[in-house]
């Protein structure tokens, strides 16, 4: 029988980066890799849209199209044990599985079965191997809407659309070329769904998901600055993450770099927010090049604001940074309608935590 991984187990799989190769697409040579949010999102969206047209035959179990008894779809202890010792050795317990009937639910402490008897849209699963299917990034986002707080759901969506990986133990990696999905693909999939708990929240959250984040801190900053006041954010215009700005290549002001990637960028105001961390980017060499990068960006009429971990992890420091960004954008933060500095700081720290 087929085993269907779902909910938080599927989310861990996609965030970990261990299953990215299943998403299709050609092998990309380093010199041809997409650089900048626009290229990344265009490439990743094309792959995701193609994948959303694929239906796995085993998914017919959720349409009631199989003649066999529901118990034939019941995950057995031996199968679960092999998964825990193999491809899912990294995953948290319990494993979350999707089954087509209540009679297929097992009583194993190491699993939690979710019943889904209605049909699921194309693109709901990605094949891992024989008789093992993984809920797609889009499906697990829709499923988690029923249990996650709204802001946590937006964060999950941003992580599924990010260029970094996260392991269940909290460690992060920064070598991902393309994200598992994109906001456009999430919205397209959710538009096809029906009869799922939390679907309305999932559709609202997808509209707030940020694409192409390069680190957990970039995700937290983008959300806290751009979320509406009622959700605990500062209500500023939403930035583009890892926006590409081409450098000058000729003339007396020619620059060494072909382009720069800005952590958070507001194109209309030409304002960039850079987060300084030798851990979350490329090490001490990145720090050594910061001054040159800021000078080059200034030459390109880009105003650069720098944030540090010590600054943003303090509620008052975060508040000062947000108002500095607001002034640069010519925007206004309506503090009286938002959360307190302390509450917003606590929200931000929860966004940083994996």
TrEMBL record:
It comes from Gordonibacter pamelaeae. This is DUF559 domain-containing protein. It comes from the Bacteria.
């Amino acid at each position: 029988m087929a085993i269907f991984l779902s909910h938080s187990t599927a989310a861990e799989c996609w965030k970990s980066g261990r299953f990215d190769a299943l998403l299709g697409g050609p092998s990309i040579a380093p010199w041809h890799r997409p650089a900048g949010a626009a290229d990344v999102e265009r490439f990743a969206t094309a792959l995701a849209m193609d994948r959303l047209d694929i239906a796995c035959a085993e998914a017919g179990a959720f349409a009631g199209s199989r003649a066999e008894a529901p118990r034939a779809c019941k995950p057995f202890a031996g199968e679960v044990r092999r998964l825990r010792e193999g491809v899912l050795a990294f995953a948290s317990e319990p494993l979350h599985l999707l089954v087509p009937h209540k009679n297929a639910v097992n009583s194993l402490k190491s699993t939690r079965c979710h019943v889904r008897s209605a049909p699921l849209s194309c693109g709901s699963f990605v094949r891992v191997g024989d008789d093992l299917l993984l809920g797609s990034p889009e499906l697990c986002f829709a499923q988690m809407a029923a249990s996650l707080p709204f802001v946590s759901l937006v964060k999950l969506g941003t992580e599924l659309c990010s260029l970094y990986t996260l392991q269940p133990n909290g460690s992060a990696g920064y070598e991902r070329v393309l994200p598992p999905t994109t906001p456009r693909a999430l919205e397209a999939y959710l538009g096809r769904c029906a009869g799922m708990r939390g679907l309305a929240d999932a559709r609202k959250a997808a509209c707030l998901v940020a694409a192409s984040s390069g680190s957990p801190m970039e995700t937290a900053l983008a959300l806290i600055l751009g979320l509406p006041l009622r959700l605990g954010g500062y209500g500023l215009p939403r930035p583009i993450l890892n926006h590409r700005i081409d450098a000058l290549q000729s003339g007396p002001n020619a620059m060494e770099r072909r382009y720069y990637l800005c952590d958070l960028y507001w194109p209309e105001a030409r304002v960039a927010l850079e987060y300084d961390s030798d851990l979350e980017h490329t090490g001490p060499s990145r720090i050594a090049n910061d001054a040159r990068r800021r000078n080059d960006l200034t030459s390109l009429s880009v105003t650069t604001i720098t944030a540090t971990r010590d600054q943003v992890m303090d509620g008052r420091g975060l508040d000062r940074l947000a108002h500095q960004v607001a002034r640069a954008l010519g925007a206004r933060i309506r503090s009286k309608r938002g959360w307190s500095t302390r509450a917003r700081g606590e929200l931000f720290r929860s966004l940083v935590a994996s």
